[in-house]
């Protein structure tokens, strides 16, 4: 409701200044510390380094076993996202199309009510459960991510699927498609906006999750990127150059992803929250 | 009926997995809360002993106090800041998309790493600045002080949560028809009145979403504490989640912390239901 150009320019400048101090400053620190030697940090924490030490990254890669943890995280994230989209959407479809029948209504409310149970409430018994099935590894985490996301995803998908006319299913069935063909070839593509939302939320969760790997993973070869940062912090508490180089390596993939897909990410996340 | 058989091909295995890991874990937690299991060895049923012990336990009481103080302050701060930010970003400004993208960035980043970075800012950057500029209260690390450490965790929590809430408020503001502003300015309403009487009621559903999600997330605060203070100094920043994690896994209090988790679940469920009811009623 700004009436003139001048006040709009002032507001723009204020917002940029505020962003620089609050949002970009911590990121500047992260980059700068990662490129300094401990001596340079001791001289001045804030100054931009006169000499950039990119070798910090090589040392950090070696010491945190970066390629192993990166590969684990990438596999977990990609497979969990794909698995979630493929299975959860189908399940939501089956439930939504059969609402009103006792069994399906029960499954729906059973899953939705689980949204009230946060992860930390079940973590103690879950860990026992997971180790009983020898799932304290990468495939185990993938299964957990696909399954634990069900309540939220069923909720998101079913709201969307309601708006898709059943005539579409019928037409596909008359054309001789079986249920799987009907869903994956005809219905699934029409769910695109919700698929994007679920994919983005699952992606961010799997990539950034720390609690689940912390309580479930014990073997070093199964560590994720986030868990590796925590373990590394414990071992090299005071070597800030290496620690920050390592943090930056763990943040970078998601920042790069965001640079290219920020519009889709923002609309996907909004879509999910406003629907919910 | 062929259709239903096909549905079951996916529904049954998914439900079995969900039941095994989610539902069964939850039930098992309730079951063990009535025992004296340490997490290993033998156990006996002890009835309600764990639940009765919770009442007088100082560690539990302190954890509840910290968690609620944190969640209430964080929720209020986040909602005020995000609403202001959303109003500013929704105004006629330049580079709107770039600004929106920058302010949303914290949502993308891992809470653990963000907390590590802020840990460094509190321990090295701010004291350094404080000494150089002669500002006394900055010159020592607030995370090392029992009465101030929670503020450090609050700052990180708020810093990250504002991103999401701002976007939700912005999408709320976009649903508001701009004609109402013209109408209300013709009626001679001031800016504050316009916001409070016209805009806010229209974005009330978005306020509800933000309040409910905020409270629930902040009550579960975990990553930030593990990364920054590990519950310290002393136990001054020990949230309920951290207490369950630390004492349940390595403090030989498996059954006792299971009881703590069950009570905490009830508290969270009641709060979420209550909030949704009350806030939805106000919307109508």
Verbal overview:
Chain A is mainly alpha-helical and 276 residues long. Chain A is 79% helix and 0% strand. In chain A, helix 4 packs antiparallel against helix 11 and helix 9 packs across helix 10 (179-190). The longest helix of chain A is centred in the last third of the chain and has 36 residues, at 240-275. Chain A starts with a helix and ends with a helix. Chain B is mainly alpha-helical and 284 residues long. Helices cover 76% and strands 0% of the residues of chain B. Chain B has helices at 2-32, 49-56, 58-90, 96-108, 111-133, 149-173, 179-186, 191-202, 204-219, 223-228, 240-250, 254-283. Chain B is globular and about 75 Å long. The mean pLDDT of chain B is 90. Chains A and B meet through helix 1, helix 4, helix 6, helix 7 and helix 11 of A and helix 1, helix 4, helix 5, helix 6 and helix 9 of B. Chain A: It is a multi-pass membrane protein. Chain A: It comes from Blautia parvula. Chain A: This is Carbohydrate ABC transporter permease. Chain A: Residues 70-261 form the ABC transmembrane type-1 domain.
What is the strand and helix layout of this fold?
The complex is a heterodimer of chains A (276) and B (284).
Chain A: H1 5-34, H2 38-43, H3 55-63, H4 66-97, H5 102-113, H6 119-132, H7 138-148, H8 150-161, H9 166-174, H10 179-190, H11 192-208, H12 211-216, H13 225-235, H14 240-275
Chain B: H1 2-32, H2 49-56, H3 58-90, H4 96-108, H5 111-133, H6 149-173, H7 179-186, H8 191-202, H9 204-219, H10 223-228, H11 240-250, H12 254-283
Helix pairs in contact in B: 3-6, 3-9, 4-6, 5-6, 6-9, 9-12, 11-12
Transmembrane segments (chain A): 12-35, 74-94, 106-126, 138-161, 182-205, 240-261
Subcellular location (chain A): Cell membrane
Membrane topology (chain A): Multi-pass membrane protein
């Amino acid at each position: 409701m700004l009436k003139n150009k001048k006040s709009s320019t002032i507001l723009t400048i204020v917002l940029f200044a505020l962003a620089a101090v609050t949002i970009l400053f911590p990121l500047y620190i992260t980059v700068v510390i990662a490129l300094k030697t401990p001596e340079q940090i001791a001289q001045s924490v804030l100054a931009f380094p006169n000499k950039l030490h990119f070798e910090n990254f090589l040392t950090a890669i070696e010491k945190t076993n970066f390629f192993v943890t990166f590969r684990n995280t990438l596999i977990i994230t990609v497979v969990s996202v794909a698995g979630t989209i493929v299975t959860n959407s189908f399940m939501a479809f089956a439930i939504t199309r059969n609402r009103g029948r006792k069994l399906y209504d029960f499954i729906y409310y059973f899953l939705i009510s689980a949204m009230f149970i946060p992860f930390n409430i079940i973590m103690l018994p879950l860990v026992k459960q997971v180790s009983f099935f020898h799932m304290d590894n990468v495939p185990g985490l993938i299964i957990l991510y696909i399954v634990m996301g069900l309540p939220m995803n069923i909720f998101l998908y079913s709201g969307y699927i309601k708006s898709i006319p059943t005539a579409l299913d019928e037409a596909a069935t008359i054309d001789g498609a079986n249920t799987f063909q009907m869903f994956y070839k005809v219905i699934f593509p029409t769910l695109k906006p919700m698929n994007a939302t679920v994919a983005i939320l699952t992606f961010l969760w799997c990539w950034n999750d720390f609690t689940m790997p912390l309580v479930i993973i014990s073997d070093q070869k199964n560590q994720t990127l986030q868990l590796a940062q925590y373990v590394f912090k414990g071992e090299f508490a005071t070597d800030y150059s290496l620690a920050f180089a390592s943090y930056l390596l763990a943040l970078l993939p998601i920042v790069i992803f965001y640079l290219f897909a920020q519009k889709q990410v923002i609309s996907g996340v909004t879509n999910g929250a406003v629907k919910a | 009926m062929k259709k239903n058989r096909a549905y079951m091909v996916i529904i049954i295995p998914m439900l079995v997995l969900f039941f095994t890991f989610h539902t069964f874990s939850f039930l098992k937690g309730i079951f063990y809360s009535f025992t004296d299991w340490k997490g290993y060895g033998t156990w006996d049923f002890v009835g309600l002993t764990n639940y009765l012990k919770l009442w007088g336990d100082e560690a539990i009481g302190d954890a509840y106090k910290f968690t609620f103080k944190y969640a209430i302050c964080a929720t209020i701060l986040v909602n005020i800041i995000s609403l202001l930010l959303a109003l500013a970003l929704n105004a006629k400004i330049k580079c709107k998309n770039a600004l929106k993208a920058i302010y949303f960035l914290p949502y993308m980043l891992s809470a653990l790493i963000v907390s590590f970075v802020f840990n460094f800012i509190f321990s090295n950057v701010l004291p350094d600045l404080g000494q150089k500029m002669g500002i006394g209260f900055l010159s020592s690390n607030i995370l090392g002080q029992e009465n101030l450490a929670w503020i450090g965790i609050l700052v990180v929590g708020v810093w990250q949560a504002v991103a999401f809430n701002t976007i939700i408020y912005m999408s709320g503001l976009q649903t508001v028809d701009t004609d109402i502003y013209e109408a209300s300015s013709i009626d001679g309403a001031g800016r504050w009145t316009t916001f409070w009487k016209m805009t806010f009621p229209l974005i009330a559903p978005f306020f509800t979403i933000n309040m409910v999600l905020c409270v629930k997330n902040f009550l579960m605060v975990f990553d930030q504490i593990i990364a920054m203070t590990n519950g310290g100094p002393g136990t001054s920043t020990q949230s309920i989640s951290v207490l369950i994690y630390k004492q349940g896994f390595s403090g030989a209090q498996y059954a006792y912390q299971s009881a703590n988790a069950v009570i905490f679940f009830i508290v969270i469920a009641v709060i979420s239901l209550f909030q949704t009811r009350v806030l939805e009623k106000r919307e109508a």
